[in-house]
Design brief:
Layout: H1 2-13, H2 24-29, H3 31-39, H4 41-53, H5 60-73, H6 77-88, E1 95-96, E2 116-123, H7 126-129, E3 132-141, E4 144-155, E5 158-172, E6 176-184, E7 189-198, E8 208-216, E9 220-221, E10 223-230, H8 237-248, E11 258-259
Parallel strand pairs: 1-9
Antiparallel strand pairs: 2-3, 2-10, 2-11, 3-4, 4-5, 5-6, 6-7, 7-8, 8-10
Helix pairs in contact: 3-6, 4-5
Length: 275
């Protein structure tokens, strides 16, 4: 109990206010990481950002969006170390959700055709799908895709680039090639991709494809969403009818999806945008 009080006092000294009765798990398992986080401005701001999300926790969509933004905007090695410790020792109470029934994936999928630069033009879940400048660089491998994910997130009075790397592996390349699985250690994240439609009007160079996904990590059980990928920053009008029809098969209204701004300020912050 004295250690709990001490940790609360240390964090209060750094300007981080916590509910002292809720930090027992942190005291037991993650005291060094928590104190280090409190002593560094970037990580401390991340904790304060998460603290601010508590004020809107009764609004599920807004709370989810807020916590995801904080994780993206303030992630650094110290913040990641703290979150990983909390995850490893089950100090986080995850948001609980329910994924829709698994959709029907495409019956054939050549991952080599998906190599190169893609934009996410439309999505469904505000906390996950609806960011500006969503540029993904795909590198195909044997039955897998290595994906560099770039997008912009709000941070204080501006925006910043976030980047994550994922490897999606076809779990059954011959039986269900349209189902791909990724695992990311930072938040113990397992994500299933269902590729439900791929442009067939452009030969071996598809210009769009659709992913429905469902995943679980330390903060969110059964998060899910829908992504429309396009080779151009906005989905060309000539493909809207086909995309709308493909989405409708899974009960998704294209006209109600969020549309990301992939133009303003979306030059990637490095010289090469190719893979």
């Amino acid at each position: 109990e004295q250690m709990k009080v001490l940790l609360c006092l240390v964090l209060a000294f750094f300007g981080v206010v916590v509910q002292c009765q809720s930090v027992g798990c942190l005291v037991l398992h993650c005291t060094p990481q928590m104190i280090k986080c409190g002593s560094e401005a970037q990580c401390r701001s991340g904790l304060m950002c998460l603290q601010g999300c508590e004020k809107i926790k009764n609004n599920t969509d807004a709370f989810n969006t807020c916590t995801i933004h904080c994780n993206y905007a303030y992630q650094d090695a110290t913040f990641e170390s703290l979150i990983s410790c909390m995850a490893d020792h089950h100090c986080l109470k995850p948001i609980s959700d329910t994924c829709p029934p698994a959709p029907q994936p495409v019956s054939t999928l050549d991952v080599k055709q998906l190599g190169g630069k893609w934009y996410i033009t439309d999505g469904v879940t505000p906390a996950l799908d609806c960011y500006a400048c969503q540029i993904h660089l795909f590198t195909p491998g044997p039955n897998q895709l290595f994906v560099q994910e770039h997008f912009k997130v709000p941070k204080e009075n501006t925006t910043m680039w976030a980047q994550f790397n994922q490897t999606y592996v076809q779990t059954d390349p011959t039986g269900t090639p349209g189902i791909m699985k990724a695992y990311e250690k930072y938040q113990n994240d397992t994500n299933l991709w269902y590729v439900t439609a791929v442009d067939s009007s452009s030969g071996t160079q598809p210009q769009w494809f659709i992913v429905l996904y469902c995943g679980t990590n330390v903060g969110w059980t059964n998060y899910h969403g829908v992504l429309v990928y396009s080779r151009t920053p906005a989905l060309p009008d000539k493909y809207v009818s086909a995309v709308s029809a493909a989405l409708a098969k899974n009960g998704i209204d294209y006209s109600k999806m969020c549309v990301g701004d992939n133009v303003d300020g979306c030059q990637l912050p490095f010289s090469s945008e190719s893979v």
